[in-house]
Specification:
Order of helices and strands: EHEHEHEHEH
Shape: globular
Helix content: 40-55%
Length: 126
């Protein structure tokens, strides 16, 4: 079984832990955590990831800026990005998707949505 690397960018340790907990239910995932957009970019420059989960509202660099920068990097242009946020307004969703996010999940976090999203974007069966 191949291993996929997933980057979780979330400033709240509790939320990050919930996302990681959900993703650990999928076999074959290696998960790396980042505390904000700058930390996420730093980790993206060090190693290659197959999927990125990110929050929008974070200090230093928000998730939308991160999505924009990742999409402008040829090495990450096709890597799926999932936004997980409290921002449920239609305009926020449209903006995130226009910047290049693949999916948009609103909080509160539902484990099944995270798992389904990760499996679908990584083309994992079941």
């Amino acid at each position: 079984m191949s291993t996929y690397k997933v980057l979780v960018v979330e400033d709240s340790p509790t939320m990050r832990q919930l996302i990681v907990f959900a993703l650990k239910r999928i076999r074959g995932l290696s998960i790396v955590e980042a505390s904000d957009g700058v930390d996420g970019l730093k980790k993206l420059s060090i190693e290659k990831f197959d999927l990125i989960f990110t929050d929008i509202n974070m200090p230093i660099m928000d998730g939308l800026k991160l999505v924009s920068l990742v999409r402008n990097d040829p090495g990450y242009k096709s890597v799926p990005i999932v936004i997980i946020t409290t921002e449920g307004a239609h305009e926020d969703r449209e903006r995130a998707l226009a910047l290049g996010a693949n999916e948009y999940i609103t909080k509160p976090i539902q484990t099944t949505k995270i798992i389904d999203s990760a499996k679908r974007l990584l083309n994992l069966a079941g």
